Amino acid sequence: MRVVLLTYHFLPRIGGVELATHSLALALWKAGVELTVVAPQRTPHLPVPYRIVPLRRIRGLPRWGAAWWTLWQLWRRERFQVLHAQMLYPAGADAAAFARWIGVPLVLSAQGADILTYEPLRYGLRLKRSNARRIARALRRAGALTYHSVEMARELAREAAPHTPMLLFLPNGTWTEHFRGYDRQQLRRDYGLQPTELVFITVARNSPIKGIDILLQAARRLAERIPHGWRLWVMGRGMERLRAELPDVPVELLGEMPTESTPEGMPLHPPTEMVRRLLAADVFVAPALSGGFELACAEAAAAGLPIILARTNGASDMVRLYGAGVVVPPADPEALAQAMAHMYECPERRLQQRQCALKMAQVLDWNVLARRCCRIYQRLVERAGKQR
């Protein structure tokens, strides 16, 4: 099957959408898809097994025009069977118009900010009316839409109405094999942890929508109830800015995740240090106030960590379904502190949730998700064939 994946968020930039796009592309290639990724021209000649075609920028031609020109050249040469766009806007809007023009089946993958909004922080692309119109138009042209959560599916269906595209649950995932072969107790000794010490960990960039300030407030409250026997690791970009605001509690800022490559030079995610930290920890905390399915939540599940997260987090539905953690109200430091205290006080429950998290991770393996994606491609191609 020949598939073209259009994205404006790609390596070498490191971010959730960029890493998820690369991981899905790699898993699709492993599944036997003849995949071409059309990505920004800044993308170097990465040593990846799938094909990358740079999005040529032509002077005087807008981005959508450059995308159309590149896609048209591909279409003329090889008549790809499915066009798949990551992010509803701008890539999804550009892909939708092109797919309608040539009559090829279209898959659109929402990622979070392109469909969900959080008014208190003015978060979400649809808060701008022109974006909202373009996103709704794209949704009404798609043959299939992928979503991370029930809330996301609801918004997609509402914005696509009266059009009824196929909906596919396709969250962001993880490579479960990266978490095998470690001695957890040795890792804890390497990090100087006591046998009975409980470690909470979060991995995120320092952005208001990620709720790190809420987590630090919760840590203060937890310290008032349980002064000793636990610590909090905070890993991610921009965390150094928080050093002056740290509460007088055991919080460690681990800094940005180091970037790594395979021996062949291909980007490696999650990096080894992140894997080691997750495996050495006991509980993952995801205080994000809105968004899609965070990669870090999938990676925490692969490490067997119970997850505490807000109900507005894209991973909350799966955590509930599998019993892999605790879901709390968003922007509520007291509820978050209570959930953390409960984790500390109930080791038996924590162990049960650990097993549930590992089961959840099997569903989130990129190889499993790619097979789900292939099924939707096949259904679209078959339906297109019947309509001819």
CATH class type of the largest domain: Alpha Beta
Could you say what the CATH architecture of the largest domain is? 3-Layer(aba) Sandwich
Rg, nearest Å: 21 Å
* Beginning-to-end CA distance, first to last residue: 18 Å
Helix/strand-derived category reads alpha/beta
Order of helices and strands: EHEEHEHEHEHEHEHEEEEHEHEHEHHH
Count of the domains: 2
Strand content: 15-25%
Total number of beta strands: 15
Could you explain how this protein is built, in words?
The protein is built from 13 helices and 15 strands. The chain is an alpha/beta fold. It has two domains: 2-173 and 366-387, 3-Layer(aba) Sandwich (Rossmann fold); 176-363, Glycogen Phosphorylase B (Rossmann fold, 3-Layer(aba) Sandwich), CATH 3.40.50.2000. The strands form three sheets. Strands 3-2-1-4-5-6-7 form a seven-stranded parallel β-sheet, with helices on both faces. A six-stranded parallel β-sheet has the order 10-9-8-13-14-15, with helices on both faces. The chain has a two-stranded antiparallel ribbon with strand order 11-12. The chain is globular and about 65 Å long. The model has no long low-confidence stretch (mean pLDDT 93).
